[in-house]
Amino acid sequence: MDKRIRPEIYAFPAIFERDDDDGGIINVTFPDLENCFANGTTVEVAMTEAKEALENVLYWMERDGQNIPAPSDIRSIPCEGEQFSSLVAADMSAARRSWENRSVSRTITLPAWLDELARQGDINFSQELQSAIKSKLGISKNPKTA
After folding, report:
1. CB contact at 8 A, 115 and 107
2. What topology is assigned to 9-100 in CATH?
3. What are residue 78's phi and psi, to 5 degrees?
4. Predicted TM-score (pTM) of this structure
5. DSSP calls for 81-100
6. CB atoms within 10 A of CB 24
7. Domain with CATH 3.30.160.250 in the chain
8. Quick one: DSSP state of residue 22?
9. Which helix (DSSP H) or strand (DSSP E) does residue 13 occupy?
10. 84-136: per-residue pLDDT in tens?
């Protein structure tokens, strides 16, 4: 696990630009982050989507051990025409918690007779599998959030 100190909040400048050729959608780019983009039908939606995109990109950069660049001073971000810049804040404690507690699907294989009996017994497969795995690992909750 990465032992570097990770900030709880990041704030990166973003450029917002209306694309009249695409129905007036508002595109958002982050000059400091190559692969971070968002868009929305209004400035408010674009801002919300930008926050989510920023949190996701930063989460995976942290997880992959990539260096996260220092954000540029927003005053140094050049805007052209009707573009405007704004700081977008990423709440990384919430983003990390969300990623770590998300549900994932797994395909399991059971003998037909066991599946039939479990269904007759109204067994919740997901709960039982989680309980069994936690028991096998000797844990009761997510160790990352404990």
Report:
1. no
2. Double Stranded RNA Binding Domain (3.30.160)
3. -75, 135
4. 0.71
5. TT-EEEEEEEEHHHHHHHHH
6. 10
7. 9-100
8. G
9. strand 9-19
10. 999 999 999 888 888 877 777 788 888 899 888 888 999 888 888 888 888 88
